[in-house]
Amino acid sequence: MNGKVMKITIRVILAVMILSFLIFTLSTFTQSDKSKMNIMFIAKSSQSNFWKTAFQGARAAGNEYNVNVVIQAPETEEDYGKQNEMLQWAIDNSVDAVVFSACDFDKSVKAAERVIDAGIPVISIDSPINSSKELMMIGTDNILAGVQAGEKLAELTDYKGKVGIINFEEGSANGMQRERGCLDAILKYPNMEVVDIRYTLSNIENPKLNTIDMLKENPEINAIATFNEWTTLGVGEALKEMDIDKDKIAVIGFDNNLKSIEQLERGIFDGLIVQNPFAMGYIGIQQAIEYKKNKQHEDFIDTGTKVITAENMYNIENQKLLFPFSNVK
């Protein structure tokens, strides 16, 4: 057989196999699994360590409570359109509940409210929607997390900081809340100043380029705050590429990506605000089950944050946050 024809044939076979698997998965969910509760978990992205950890929490709850958990997410944290399609899928397949983290505070409101109006409760985790109809919110107290970042930067700069902020997408509620908390903390000190704020995509390259541009335009900056896993990685790459003395700029980042932890250990970062995505995923599924059973719910469950530094990162409890699957005793 001609090599080119063989390659095409193999691709066709693989495509048919993948399509067959997807059809089988959806039919299994919509037909044979009706004896179990079906909960859909729609995350912001499938790519980051943060969301992979949240998926582990959701699966753990699904296994413990013997419910089906269907996990879906767009590739990027900006793709609210794909999330809206997933919300419609939840209606079309009559799921029992949706656990949802919105890419955009406003642009998924109508889609989410259609789900709720269809009799399916929507529980927000990590990032809420702009609707009073959402059942509850589970996640970080984002304003407090921002305050933690701002206070640490003030301390690190002897309360005389020239601060640059690298935030993620402007429409995301949790990013804006973190920024607000950080500004509240910084601006109460008369000698602290916010020099520049940049909004970036949730990947590594875009925040890296924005950080380089910001520092070139504002060489007086001696402190940087950044508010999620991707932007933290991007800032780290920018500092590495610019070969900036680690003692010249204080940096507070977010989350527990292994590369960020390594940079914390090496002194490139001065602190990480570490969340608990495993708890968000687990409690989201747990609360969906509890609500379906007894119609009771909290308004907000705080899953907590911790300021991790090079000085306290080897504390056993902090190790469990930094490495949630390393079986730390």
From TrEMBL:
Its cellular-component GO annotations read: cell envelope
Q: Write down the InterPro entries for this protein, in alphabetical order.
A: Peripla_BP_I (IPR028082), SBP_2_dom (IPR025997)
State its location(s). Answer: Cell envelope
Domain spans labelled Periplasmic binding protein: 39-295
Keywords for the protein's UniProt record, in alphabetical order = Signal
Principal localization reads: other
The GO terms describing molecular function are:
carbohydrate binding
* The family this protein is said to belong to: Belongs to the bacterial solute-binding protein 2 family.
Instruction: Return the protein name.
Output: Monosaccharide ABC transporter substrate-binding protein, CUT2 family
Q: Which organism is it from?
A: Hydrogenoanaerobacterium saccharovorans
Q: Supply the source organism's classification.
A: Bacteria, Bacillati, Bacillota, Clostridia, Eubacteriales
